[in-house]
Amino acid sequence: xxxxxxxxxxxxxxxxxxxxxxxxxxxxxxxxxxxxxxxxxxxxxxxxxxxxxxxxxxxxxxxxxxxxxxxxxxxxxxxxxxxxxxxxxxxxxxxxxxxxxxxxxxxxxxxxxxxxxxxxxxxxxxxxxxxxxxxxxxxxxxxxxxxxxxxxxxxxxxxxxxxxxxxxxxxxxxxxxxxxxxxxxxxxxxxxxxxxxxxxxxxxxxxxxxxxxxxxxxxxxxxxxxxxxxxxxxxxxxxxxxxxxxxxxxxxxxxxxxxxxxx
Length: 263
Ligand code: ACM
Hints:
Blueprint: E1 2-7, H1 15-27, E2 33-35, H2 49-54, E3 57-58, H3 63-75, E4 78-87, E5 90-99, E6 102-108, H4 116-119, E7 129-132, E8 135-139, H5 148-156, E9 161-165, H6 173-184, E10 187-191, E11 196-197, E12 205-206, E13 212-214, E14 220-223, E15 230-235
Parallel strand pairs: 1-2, 2-4, 3-4, 8-9, 9-10
Antiparallel strand pairs: 1-15, 4-5, 5-6, 7-8, 10-13, 11-12, 13-14
The structure holds acetamide (ACM).
Residues 38, 113, 142-143, 167-169 line the site of acetamide (ACM).
């Protein structure tokens, strides 16, 4: 199957035009799974809680999930997209999984980065895996990459493909995700954004692009450049992620010694 990412530079605060760019980009691909960046409809660098509230929506009954559901239905594809979610008087930095039949689930970012801690409540539902037409999809968001427990938890829960919306500003993640693939024998799809934001007199943020897909042995199936905008896809056989054998003596999960990892 084909799976990929759409790397672009969302316009801050312009949900409608960002959705339109997503619609145009995804309409041009026959991939079965597409991952979009973190907070890809609102933009990232908020300057007030009012702004965060205005640019967040309920899930699944908000307009963006409805629009993405229409797209997933018409393209017969699965979409993972980062957005700001309103729920129970809180705002979460979330990623939604949407398929041809509509919304399937939401992951709320566990490890908030930098000023996200001012705006968002941390997710506390843990790391879940969804079955999607024979693929097992696990979701994590951006800075979760620096905690190897996130990818490990998803792999132990059965993920074949880790779908990873991101707004990366540090340079390390693309190489780290190669290791996440090797140590868990999973595919990863990191969808990052491009461009920069400098709002409200704050120091500017420059996003590193370099969205990528990795294979179960850490192969880089593609890696985009820092500036490039567009869709990239890779051919993936999700079943390869179910075999955790390294050689005839070693199995990545069978050889774990969790009793020794207690500290
Ligand atoms: C990040 O978590 N957006 C770096």
